[in-house]
Each structure stands twice: as C-alpha cells, then as structure tokens.
Recover the amino acids of this structure.
C-alpha cells in the first residue's frame, strides 16, 4: 500500500492496558480514527476516558518494555506511512519533536525551571538539527518566539520560565513544539491551566499556526467550548472507547450518544434560569479495571432501559448514524432522534 | 550581590555574637548558681586562699558578668591583657581565654586541633558525595530491581548503625585482625603517606554513614524529578534518554543535595565527636569531650564558637551557591 492511500495519521484498534496490583487498567480499549494534514481533531471526554493516554501512545511517551508501570500497547498507529507501535523506541524518539510534537496542560511545570526558555527551544531544535550551530539555533528560537507573539523575543529568549506569565509560557511551549515544523501537533488540555481571557488567544494562535504550517492537530480536552472553536472533527471518548465521532457541527447540532448529550448539557449557559443552566451527567466515571458489562455508559444512562437489556449484555460498536457520523449506542436511531429533539434540544 | 554579601557577613558576626552571649551566659552563670568557683578550677584543689583570689583578679572573674563578657569580646577582636599587678600576660587576638586545666591559650590549642577535622571532613565528604549520590541515582534508575533493593538495604543499615558500632567493627577487623591500617593519626605535614593511611578507615566509616543518607536522598529526589512534567517535555522534544536523565533530571536532583552537603560539611568541621573518639583522633570533637568532662569552661566555649563559625559559614556558602544554581533564587 502506498503512502498516498493512507490518511496522514491513522490509529487502528489501539489498546493501552496498564498492569497494576489491583488488576489490568484498560485505559484505552479499542480506538480507531484517522486525521489528515491541515485538519484538527478534538478528542473529548472526562478524566479517565483515555484521551491523554491515547496522545502519549502516539508520541511513544509511555514507559516501554519491562519497566515498572509500562503498559501493554496493541493495535497500530500509522504516521505518514510509518507504523509506530511496533517501531523501535529510538526511531520513535527521532520522530518525536520533529514530525510530531506535543504541548501540555500546565506550561509552568512543563518547562524546566533551571533553564532559560531560549535554551529549552534551542535544545529541541539542535536535537533534530545536529549540524546547526548554536547561533543558528538561537536565531531560530527568537524567530519562533516572535511568531507565537512574545514581545521583545530577542530579550525574552534569555528569560526563565518563572519570569513569564501563564499565557506567555504556553506561547513559549508552542514555540518549542513547533521549532522543527512538525506535521502533527498534539495539544493536551492546552488552555485548562490558563485564564479565560488567555484561553481564546492561545486557541487562535494554534489555529493560525496550523493554517500557516498545514499540520494536523489533535486537541485533547474535557471542554466542548474549546473544540467548538477550533476542531473540524470531534471524537467523544468514554471509558477508554470512542462513543461518538463526526464533524464538529454535526456533533453540536445533532449529537447521537446520550453521553454526548450529557457533555453538551454540562456546558454552563448564562442565558438560562439558574436551575436550568446545567444538566449534569449523573454518577461517576466507570472503573477501568472492572468495566461495566455491555455498554460502559449504561449505569449512568437515563435511557438504558429503552434498549431491552442489550445495553447490559452487548458492547455497542460505532455504527454510522449519518454520513461521516458514527455513534456506539444500542438505542434505535429513530428513538435517539426523538429523545434528542423532544427532551434534550429544548434544554440545551 | 556585593551588598548582599556585605549584609550576610554582618549577619555572620551578629550570629556569632549571639552564640557567644548565650554560651558565655550558660557557662559562667552555671558555676555561680551551683556554687562552684571558676577561679578554684584554675588553680587546682590544693591552693591557698590568697592564690585563689590572685587568680580570680588576674582572670577578671571578680568583675560583673557584663564586664567579663565585654572583656571576652574585646579579647576576641583585639586581644587582652591578664594583669595580676605583678605579672602581665598578653593574649593575642582572637583570644578565647585560657584552659582551666592546661593553662594553654584556647585559640591556638583549637587551631592545632582543627586540622584533624578538616582532613577527616574533606576526605570523607568527597567519598560519601560520590558514592552516596551515585548509588542513589543508579537505584532510582533501576528501581525495583535486585540492585536497587540491595543498595537500599545497605543504605538503611548505614543510616541505622551508629558510628561507634561500624567504627569499632572496622577497627577490630582491619586494624587489629588484618593489620592493614595503623591506628594513629599523623599530621599531613609530617608524613603524607602515614596521614593518608591513618585516615582511610575513619574516612570510609564516616562516609558510609553519610553516603547512606545521600543515597536515600538522591534516590527519592531523582524519582520525584523523573515524574515531573518537564522531564516528559524533554522526552517529547525527542532528546536522547542520556540527555534527559544526565542533564534535565540531574540538574534538579543535585541542587537540593548541595544544600544538605554544605550543612553536613560545616557541621563536621566543627568536630566529629564519635568518629574522633572511636578512631582516637584528636580534633575539636575530642577536645569538646575532654573539656566537658573536666568542666574546662573556656575550652567548651571555644569549641562551641568554632563549631558555630563553621556552620554559619557553611550556610552562607550554600546560600551563595544556591543563587548560582537556581535561577529562581535572587540575592537581595
């Protein structure tokens, strides 16, 4: 198969299981998705749904081999025609920071406190450009800081992370991630630790840079507001599995899965009466060791009884609900549409 | 920076003054309260009344405590005269008085002792710093393996076993049974080879004790650091593992160890009582024990001042170094 036939990033039946003393934690349990260059995928879900574990697997940042805490990873991750799960750690390391890069949730702890921002960017550049002189790398670092909107980049390049504000630090992290023009950028909760006013700026920046560099972007978040602003496609995860996948507008306009309804209902609305502003998803996230039988969401699903018992006995698979729009739910499509139009939509 | 240094040095002097005042208070008030007479301690048991009064006047013990403290401080900074009317003894600065027992000047006496502690502390600290941190780092990187368990068990033993146990075992085996090392201390200037031979065993025994602490500390610190987000960032940049560990993780691991090391070294320079006693080394610690058991107040006070000086200076050096290694620390 030639590279042209495959999507730029293709994840196939990814499983990431962590052996622990209490049992096998199935953090990701059968995940597949594709992503093209120039597109943004939003992976949404609550804590423990497997979204961060997925991104760390793509980056090859889990411990490997027999090390303590190393997960069992199976499935395939194809990046630009190259399979990563079975690839050697050294090969994946070479791709890291060069072809794929990542920015993290808390830019304060994600930067080394003892090195200047510039030194940390320069280091990332020279790791993949061994021939570059220190001066060239420094020029490149200043250029990147300028590109992400750091004022006086030629001075700030010598500042330490603690001398930057939260938003500036995340900008610097983005500069660090993009210094080698990666084709894939993974942003794991990139705005969660930031002030609301700064959040939109960072999202704008990511969107602008994506247009400029034509890279593929994965945004991982629990906040549907973030993906609404930036994502082309949305993947909703629950209990280590995808429950709904589709173009962003479709997910917002006609969501199919009761969990997605819950997520949409959990977004605060100021234009409603106080008691109607939030419709929380009741219950707690599922155990990843003893995953509920059948549909993992059934203990929290208000409509589980309408499936005639299938939701407790049978694991639902992603099925097409509309073109390019898939959901893993036992409810008949007509029933889902009825519930959404009659009960959910009026409250959103 | 210079302003900071100046302020800190003034601080050092002030702290030493406080230490001096407190020890002076304790050691010269206690005899008054318990009814022992310092003058009597100078002249010995079989002195007549006139001799006692003479020495009391000469040493200034008939003056008020404040006046005595003032004279003591004056002695430290400019020297002082002990005047008995007929004979005048000049004690050059820094004068810490005379030993009750030997009537030696305290400062030169302690100065001659401190060489032992410097030899002991410097040699042992190099050993424990290298051995301890290396063991801790390897243990952390091989966490959970047999190597890690064995090192940590040995380290636990090192932390738990007292000096006088390991020291005596080492003496019994290596000096008395095998005869590998002499049990005497030779000044470096007299014979460097004998100096080295005499110190090998104390160095190793003392280093074992401290290395155990450092191994545990560096292991725990490195494990913490390896869990930090910025280590994940370093890996995400595609840096090679030796760079991630050797540069990013080490920088954060060794910085806190520096603090502990400075304070430990400072403390040791002020006398290592158990080690000196075990290995028959005559340093400040030995002098401290001797002076306490014979109520030799000026010597006790001198040893205290020496120890305080080393510890205060060590903390100053540590603070200055910290500003160099940690950019978040600003000296102001």
């Amino acid at each position: 198969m030639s590279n042209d036939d495959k999507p730029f990033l293709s994840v196939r039946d990814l499983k990431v299981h962590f052996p622990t003393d209490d049992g096998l934690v199935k953090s990701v349990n059968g995940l597949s998705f594709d992503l093209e260059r120039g597109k943004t995928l939003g992976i949404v879900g609550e804590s423990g749904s497997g979204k961060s574990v997925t991104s760390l697997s793509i980056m090859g940042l889990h411990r490997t081999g027999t090390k303590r805490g190393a997960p069992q990873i199976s499935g395939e991750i194809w990046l630009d025609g190259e399979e990563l799960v079975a690839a050697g750690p050294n090969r994946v390391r070479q791709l890291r920071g060069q072809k794929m890069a990542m920015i993290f949730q808390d830019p304060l702890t994600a930067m080394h406190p003892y090195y200047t921002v510039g030194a940390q960017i320069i280091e990332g550049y020279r790791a993949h450009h061994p021939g570059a002189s220190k001066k060239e790398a420094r020029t490149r670092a200043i250029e990147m800081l300028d590109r992400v909107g750091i004022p006086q980049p030629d001075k700030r390049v010598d500042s330490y992370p603690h001398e930057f504000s939260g938003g500036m630090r995340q900008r610097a992290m983005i500069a660090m991630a993009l210094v080698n023009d990666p084709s894939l950028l993974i942003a794991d909760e990139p705005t969660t630790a930031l002030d609301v006013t700064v959040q939109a700026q960072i999202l704008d920046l990511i969107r602008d840079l994506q247009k400029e560099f034509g890279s593929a972007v994965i945004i991982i978040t629990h906040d549907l507001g973030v993906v609404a602003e930036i994502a082309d496609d949305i993947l909703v995860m629950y209990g280590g599995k995808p429950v709904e996948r589709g173009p962003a507008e479709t997910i917002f306009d006609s969501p199919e899965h009761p969990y997605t309804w819950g997520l949409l209902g959990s977004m605060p609305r100021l234009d409603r009466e106080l008691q109607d502003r939030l419709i929380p998803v009741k219950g707690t996230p599922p155990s990843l060791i003893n995953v509920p039988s059948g549909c993992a969401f059934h203990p929290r699903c208000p409509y589980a009884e309408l499936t005639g018992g299938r939701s407790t006995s049978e694991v639902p698979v992603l099925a097409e609900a509309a073109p390019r729009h898939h959901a893993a739910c036992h409810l008949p499509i007509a029933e889902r549409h009825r519930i959404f139009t009659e009960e959910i939509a009026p409250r959103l | 920076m210079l302003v900071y240094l100046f302020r800190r040095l003034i601080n050092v002097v002030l702290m030493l003054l406080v230490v001096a005042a407190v020890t002076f208070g304790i050691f010269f008030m206690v005899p008054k309260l318990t009814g022992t007479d310092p003058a009597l301690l100078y002249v010995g048991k079989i002195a007549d009344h006139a001799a006692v009064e003479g020495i009391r006047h000469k040493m200034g013990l008939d003056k008020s405590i404040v006046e005595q403290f003032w004279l003591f401080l004056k002695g430290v900074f400019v020297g002082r005269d002990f005047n008995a009317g007929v004979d005048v003894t000049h004690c050059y600065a820094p004068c810490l008085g005379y030993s009750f027992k030997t009537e030696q000047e305290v400062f030169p006496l302690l100065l001659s002792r401190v060489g032992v502690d410097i030899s002991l502390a410097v040699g042992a600290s190099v050993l424990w710093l290298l051995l301890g941190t290396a063991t801790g780092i390897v243990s952390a990187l091989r966490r959970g393996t047999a190597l890690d368990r064995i090192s940590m068990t040995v380290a636990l033993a090192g932390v738990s076993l007292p000096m006088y146990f390991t020291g005596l075992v080492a003496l019994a085996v290596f000096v008395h049974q095998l005869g590998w090392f002499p049990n005497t201390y030779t000044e470096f200037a007299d014979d460097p080879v004998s100096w080295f031979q005499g110190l090998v065993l104390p160095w190793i025994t003392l280093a074992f004790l401290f290395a155990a602490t450092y191994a545990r500390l560096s292991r725990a610190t490195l494990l913490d650091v390896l869990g930090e987000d910025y280590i994940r960032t370093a890996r995400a940049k595609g840096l090679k593992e030796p760079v991630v560990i050797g540069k990013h993780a080490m920088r954060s691991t060794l910085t806190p160890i520096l603090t502990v090391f400075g304070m430990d070294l400072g403390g040791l320079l002020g006398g290592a009582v158990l080690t000196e006693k075990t290995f028959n080394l005559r340093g400040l610690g030995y002098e401290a024990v001797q002076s306490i058991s014979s109520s030799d107040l000026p010597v006790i006070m001198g040893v205290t001042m020496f120890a305080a000086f080393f510890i205060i200076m060590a903390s100053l050096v540590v603070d200055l170094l910290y500003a160099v290694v940690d950019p978040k620390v600003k000296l102001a």
Observations:
- The mean pLDDT of chain B is 86.
- Strands of chain B lie at 80-83, 88-91.
